[in-house]
């Protein structure tokens, strides 16, 4: 796998191969084909080729696990189509990402790889990628993240009753299951013939795995229709409350390494593999240090640059040092509307609750001490630490964890359903591959390739 730029943000679009490439040929501007039309946008053939090349580099030495080239191109093209749909949906519903936020994300990627921004530019150029396209990819990734967050806030809720029920079910077990899956998808309103074809395919895949002719990960890469197919179908670690009840009962009776028989679900037929099992139960008190603090926030946005925000925060800090009441400065100047009416009071929190920069700065203060400006992704903060305490958060932590896992499961189900709906509604015109051959035999559309730059 290409790990040149290792960061959680970058890994998302690197795995999907979303870096674009530009090719130069002496004095002639090259011609770039259209791979697919997606509503009012297009995916260029160079985008698809670059994405496929990234996948091939990840599987260097293991290329036999990959499907045939035409199938791989279809899988990657579908990922690119979904990305276009999500970005368009985000923009159409008012989701915005500022230039400063893109700069901060790129700065984090460069820093995590021990590079300056100039060095990052140079590395991209050596890899044949333009910095402008790199920024676009980062912006798209941030837009999709924001869209998903907004979706979660409006579509996903977890009640106290659900948390209580999950805690009761977990009372005698802390078992977690590492799962992987293969999905043979069915369209909405599938015909009997489509269902029969999918059933035959999933049975054939199960037979290959059962006979040892192909391991599960390789079968997922080659045959699964799931978005995580190219990751071997890996679903990660899940507790019982993160697994649909019908599947959870199966997991209890399975051993590590076993694969279920085909299961019919809302998306199609699935094969589930139990990779590993572990005991994640916690007993006894869970003592942590908590801090009580209040803050003034100066945000960085389209109208306030980082330098301006820092200068304003330094002025506010000087006012407090000169005798101004902290709560008065909060009321007049803080841009955190959630705490402004409470004098900036953040309540009790753990060091990692508001991010490493904020938490580290608070931990370094003495009680009643006022900090210098603290830079975080939200902007610049002036913080006064009011006190510390040791607290047993075992019950609180467990409840919060259960709420998060239930919410994550619900979000995954709702988000996948949402993406299927949007994919079904989108106008998609394939210009390469078998789908294009079937609908437009002998045709080929070209457009001028974008020049490298940035």
UniProtKB/TrEMBL annotation:
Main location: periplasm
Protein name: Chaperone SurA
Catalytic activity: [protein]-peptidylproline (omega=180) = [protein]-peptidylproline (omega=0)
Record bears the keyword Signal: yes
Signal peptide location: 1-25
A Gene Ontology molecular function term of the record: peptidyl-prolyl cis-trans isomerase activity
Compartments reported by the entry: Periplasm
InterPro entries the UniProt entry points to: OMP_Chaperone_SurA, PPIase_dom_sf, PPIase_PpiC, PPIase_SurA, SurA_N, Trigger_fact/SurA_dom_sf
Pfam families from the UniProt entry: Rotamase_3 (PF13616), SurA_N (PF09312)
Residue ranges, annotated region (Disordered): 434-454
Native organism taxonomy: Bacteria, Pseudomonadati, Pseudomonadota, Gammaproteobacteria, Lysobacterales
Documented EC number(s): 5.2.1.8
Alphabetical list of SUPFAM superfamilies matching this protein: FKBP-like, Triger factor/SurA peptide-binding domain-like
PANTHER family: CHAPERONE SURA
Source domain of life: Bacteria
HAMAP family from the UniProt entry: Chaperone_SurA
